[in-house]
Design brief:
8-stranded mixed β-sheet, 8 strands, binds magnesium ion, alpha/beta, binds guanosine-5'-diphosphate, 404 residues
Length: 404
């Protein structure tokens, strides 16, 4: 029978009972679920109420604080404005520093040879040393003399360094390096390093120096610098010894956008060129006159004669007014450059120096001996052959660029 019931879909009594039981269980479970839901909702509601109450407390505390005047909205607003202003200022300062760093970086790059050469050796000299003693100072002295700094300057540097080491109670040799940097900085002349151009006046710059040191190149760079400043520039090609020299200065003048005055014939009188140059400069109201001179002078008397002739022509034009008389020195020639400086300083009035080719020297110590022996400022340094490779000499920047 059971078999037939199954076959034709009829449910047995037992099956029906089972189904009813299942239904009951389901009902009971849903009721339980609903009850739990209800409880949960009630809890949530209570929590909401509690949170609201908490918010109220916080709010009232805040109001209390505000009332107390600890932090009024006005204060807050002012503080915000001040903060914004400060941030703005910081940003501006950052831009200035960045600009300076860019310049500084490139000077650092240009002086790579000096930094890695002599000053690199000096830096390494202190590394790994354990004691500061007489022997250390002696070895350092030798290094400085080798670097074209000159004996007299070196002695002064070492004496001053010993004093500073004692004064600062320095015991570790590696701490001597930064002190040396400060000491050496002190010995470079900082005053009068800038060429100040007077407004509405003819500013004369006479450039002297032996052959090949970089006079003509430097004049081209200077002319370009002053043209960029909006100045009217006239160059006098008073190096009349070689036709090639005139051509070279002509090329530079063209590049810089300056006018050039030259002799009508090869080997003409330099004095006559200076005279014509000053005349022309006056006619067109030039701001800057730069005079290139010959370096191939055979002896001291010859040099003195030539330069005094030129100086007299300038004086006849401007009287006792100041003009620059700059000696160009090749930074790679070391003590030889210093010897040249001494001779020129004896035979003519110098107002300062330009040291060229500092990009190509691993020493660069000649700057220190000039400061010490001639006691006149360095106005520019040449750090390459291109038109932009002339830098105003700034002691701090120079020192930062050569010391690592
Ligand atoms: N590397 C380098 N070369 C320079 C610098 N100044 C000049 N020179 C080079 O030195 C050489 C002689 O320069 P020049 O101006 O003719 O010297 P002058 O005889 O004194 O007029 C040229 O080849 C220049 O390019 C410099 O700052 N750095
Ligand atoms: Mg020349």
């Amino acid at each position: 029978m059971g078999f037939f019931n199954k076959l034709f879909g009829k449910k047995s009594k037992k099956e029906i009972e089972n189904e009813e039981l299942n239904k009951k269980i389901e009902l009971a479970l849903t009721e339980e679920k609903n009850q739990k839901k209800k409880e949960k909702n009630e809890e949530g509601y209570e929590k909401e109420i509690r949170d609201e109450a908490k918010d109220d407390i916080i709010e009232s505390e805040l109001i209390e604080e505000l009332d107390k005047g600890i932090e009024t909205i006005d204060d807050f607003e002012n503080e915000k404005v001040e903060q914004e202003e400060e941030e703005e200022k910081e940003k501006e300062e950052e831009i200035v520093i960045k600009k300076k760093n860019n310049f500084f970086e490139s000077l650092k790059n240009k002086l790579y040879n000096s930094r890695k050469g002599l000053f690199g050796v000096i830096k390494n000299f202190f590394v790994g040393r354990t004691v500061i003693n007489e022997e250390m100072y002696e070895e350092l002295e030798e290094l400085l003399v080798q670097s074209d700094i000159g004996l007299s300057m070196t002695t002064k540097i070492i004496e001053s360094l010993e004093k500073e080491v004692k004064l600062n109670g320095v015991k570790n040799p590696e701490e001597v390096y930064p002190l040396l940097k400060e000491v050496m900085k002190k010995f470079l002349i900082t005053e009068g390093t800038t060429i100040v151009l007077k407004e509405k006046e003819m500013n004369i710059i006479l450039v002297v120096g032996v052959n090949g040191v970089g006079k003509t190149t430097t004049i081209g760079k200077m002319a370009s610098k002053y043209r960029d400043m909006g100045k009217k520039v006239v160059i006098g090609a008073a190096d009349t010894f070689r036709a090639a020299a005139v051509e070279q200065v002509e090329e530079w003048a063209k590049r810089a956008g300056a006018e050039i005055i030259k002799s009508s014939k090869d080997g003409g009188d330099p004095g006559a060129v200076v005279f014509d140059t000053l005349k022309r400069a006056e006619e067109i109201g030039a701001d800057v006159v730069i005079i290139d001179t010959a370096g191939r002078l055979h002896n001291k008397n010859n040099l003195m004669d030539e330069l005094s002739k030129i100086n007299n022509i300038i004086k006849r034009k401007i009287g006792d007014k100041f003009y620059e008389s700059l000696l160009v020195i090749d930074g790679t020639t070391g003590q030889n450059g210093l010897a040249q400086a001494k001779v020129f300083n004896e035979v003519t009035r110098l107002t300062g120096f330009i040291v060229t080719k500092l990009d190509g020297t691993a020493k660069g110590g000649v700057l220190f001996s000039i400061s010490e022996e001639i006691k006149k400022p360095i106005k520019y340094i040449g750090v390459g052959e291109k038109i932009e490779d002339l830098r105003e000499f700034n002691v701090k920047e120079y020192i930062e660029a050569i010391f690592d």
